[in-house]
């Protein structure tokens, strides 16, 4: 029998007021239903925000170190349930088992990082410009945090947002992607088991247009954190601009790997295979462009095509599989549409480019790993985010040209350069306009204790991860303490007595 899931509001598992539902299905076999979920609306959001607002009154008073201990407990439970979460992720989202374990591990790391931050929730002290006076700053929570997440990191991304928001003393309303609602539910179950007080964590399932939008429009939501496409990000920024909410946006990418003529070719090959075809190319940091120096171009492509054709597609829970399905039919169609566009633009398709339906793949949304060569800068397949296993290869004849090509896109998330020349590596670090640069590593592989995010249309300047995510979820309070016993006037009482 199909499992029926619920929203989590004020510490209770409840149906939507609409009584309507939607299904989550397996991308590897669309005939299989994971579960049925409440298709909620604005009224459900109102109830969740009301509960979160009420719970904030006492949650903000819990010392940060104690809030952190609860997140440590969450980490411990996640460790115990890691295999179960990873297996469900292969079914609901479609990434392969190794990567699903990695996604879950990122959530565990984020929990333990937040646990530690509970005892490092520092402000600053500063001397005043006046005598017998001191200034200090505190970090304060904002209130109710509205969190809207995508499907491609269905455990990691909700933890990146929820854990620092909670550690900072906010309460949360999470709206997960409709493609991966079961995983978000499991995560919230774990948080319930860890013992968060009622109303501190709330989960509302449903469409972005109704549930997501209701969060953005709600007067009692103080901060919004969104990860998803740049298109939806623009809408979110405009609503949050109108309603004067703090908003953090982590959006699309068009990431490139440069391989210089002096690079270790086999190392660079391992990198691009993992970067381009890992998670079937559905990472925001996926390698979508490969910029090759002309001296190694032919050799590199020959080896790359061979290794790409050796990648095995199949059920993602089968440990021997390299590439799983893409998330849904619409996504597969969009990817195949880009294959058509690439051909029309004059790029040369050297492998893949079609739906793969052999063996167990017949009922799923599999796309054969695809490579276009002779791609020219400014072609649409070189500029636009495809979000699938499609790699565009561009030939360059100098380091300077490789940097120009890499930078000439609207996004600025991740980048990579393979070279043994330390001078070129440092020049690349300086000149590449992205939030993240890897040297002799693929464009993917972020770690939770470091800032994560991008330049240009990849976001609005915030960084998730590391210490920087706490800037999103807190306000600074500045306090002046005057112990002189008299009125002292800043900027006016400025003389130094002789
Ligand atoms: P999406 O933008 O379609 O959806 C993301 C979330 O926004 C979902 O929960 C969706 O329901 C919700 N949403 C949709 N319309 C909304 C609206 N009008 N108001 C409020 N919420 C709304 O993205 P997706 O397809 O889930 O994810 C893929 C995209 O996410 C890619 O562009 C990828 O690059 C990006 N991404 C970025 C990062 C990053 O950190 N920069 C990480 C992962 C994914």
UniProtKB/TrEMBL annotation:
<dbReference type="InterPro" id="IPR016160">
    <property type="entry name" value="Ald_DH_CS_CYS"/>
</dbReference>
<dbReference type="InterPro" id="IPR016161">
    <property type="entry name" value="Ald_DH/histidinol_DH"/>
</dbReference>
<protein>
    <recommendedName>
        <fullName>aldehyde dehydrogenase (NAD(+))</fullName>
        <ecNumber>1.2.1.3</ecNumber>
    </recommendedName>
</protein>
<feature type="active site">
    <location>
        <position position="250"/>
    </location>
</feature>
<comment type="similarity">
    <text>Belongs to the aldehyde dehydrogenase family.</text>
</comment>
<dbReference type="InterPro" id="IPR015590">
    <property type="entry name" value="Aldehyde_DH_dom"/>
</dbReference>
<dbReference type="InterPro" id="IPR044638">
    <property type="entry name" value="ALDH7A1-like"/>
</dbReference>
<dbReference type="InterPro" id="IPR016163">
    <property type="entry name" value="Ald_DH_C"/>
</dbReference>
<dbReference type="Pfam" id="PF00171">
    <property type="entry name" value="Aldedh"/>
</dbReference>
<dbReference type="InterPro" id="IPR016162">
    <property type="entry name" value="Ald_DH_N"/>
</dbReference>
<keyword id="KW-0560">Oxidoreductase</keyword>
<dbReference type="InterPro" id="IPR029510">
    <property type="entry name" value="Ald_DH_CS_GLU"/>
</dbReference>
<comment type="subunit">
    <text>Homotetramer.</text>
</comment>
<feature type="domain" description="Aldehyde dehydrogenase">
    <location>
        <begin position="13"/>
        <end position="479"/>
    </location>
</feature>
<dbReference type="GO" id="GO:0004029">
    <property type="term" value="F:aldehyde dehydrogenase (NAD+) activity"/>
</dbReference>
<keyword id="KW-0520">NAD</keyword>
């Amino acid at each position: 029998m199909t499992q029926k899931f619920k929203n989590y509001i004020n510490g209770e598992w409840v149906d939507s007021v609409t009584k309507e539902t939607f299904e989550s299905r397996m991308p590897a076999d669309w005939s299989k239903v994971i579960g049925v979920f409440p298709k909620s609306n604005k009224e459900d959001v109102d109830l969740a925000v009301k509960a979160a607002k009420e719970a904030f009154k006492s949650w903000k008073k819990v010392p940060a170190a104690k809030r952190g201990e609860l997140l440590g407990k969450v980490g411990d439970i996640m460790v115990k349930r890691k295999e179960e979460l990873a297996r469900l992720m292969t079914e609901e989202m479609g990434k392969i088992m190794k990567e699903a374990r990695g996604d879950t591990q990122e959530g565990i790391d984020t929990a333990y990082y937040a646990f530690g931050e509970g005892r490092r929730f520092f402000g600053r002290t500063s001397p005043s410009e006046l005598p017998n006076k001191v200034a200090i700053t505190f970090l304060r929570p904002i209130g109710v945090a509205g969190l809207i997440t995508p499907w491609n990191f269905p455990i990691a991304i909700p933890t990146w947002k929820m854990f620092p928001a909670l550690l900072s003393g906010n309460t949360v309303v999470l709206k997960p992607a409709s493609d991966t609602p079961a995983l978000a539910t499991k995560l919230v179950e774990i948080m319930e088991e860890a013992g968060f007080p009622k109303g501190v964590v709330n989960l509302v399932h449903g469409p972005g247009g109704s549930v997501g939008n209701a969060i953005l429009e709600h007067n009692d939501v103080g901060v919004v954190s969104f990860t998803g496409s740049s298109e939806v990000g623009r809408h979110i920024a405009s609503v949050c601009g109108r309603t004067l909410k703090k908003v953090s946006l982590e959006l699309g990418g068009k990431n490139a790997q440069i391989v210089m003529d002096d690079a270790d070719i086999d190392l660079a090959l391992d990198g691009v295979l993992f970067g381009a075809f890992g998670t079937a190319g559905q990472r925001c940091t996926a390698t979508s462009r490969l910029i090759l120096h002309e001296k190694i171009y032919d050799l590199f492509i020959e080896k790359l095509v061979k290794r790409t054709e050796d990648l095995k597609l199949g059920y993602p829970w089968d440990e021997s599989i390299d590439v799983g399905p893409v998330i849904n039919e619409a996504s597969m169609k969009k990817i195949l549409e880009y294959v058509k566009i690439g051909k029309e633009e004059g790029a040369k398709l050297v492998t893949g480019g079609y739906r793969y339906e052999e063996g167990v793949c017949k009922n799923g949304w599999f796309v054969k790993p695809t490579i276009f060569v002779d791609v020219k800068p400014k072609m649409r397949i070189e500029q636009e985010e495809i979000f699938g296993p499609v790699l565009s290869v561009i030939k360059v004849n100098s380091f300077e040209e490789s940097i120009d090509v890499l930078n000439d896109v609207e996004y600025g998330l991740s980048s990579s350069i393979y070279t043994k020349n330390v001078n070129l590596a440092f020049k690349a670090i300086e000149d590449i306009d992205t939030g993240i640069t890897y040297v002799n590593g693929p464009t993917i592989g972020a770690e939770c204790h470091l800032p994560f995010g991008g330049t240009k249309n990849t976001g609005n300047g915030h960084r998730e991860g590391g210490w920087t995510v706490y800037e999103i979820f807190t306000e600074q309070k500045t306090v002046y303490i005057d112990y002189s016993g008299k009125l002292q006037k800043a900027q006016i009482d400025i003389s130094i007595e002789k």
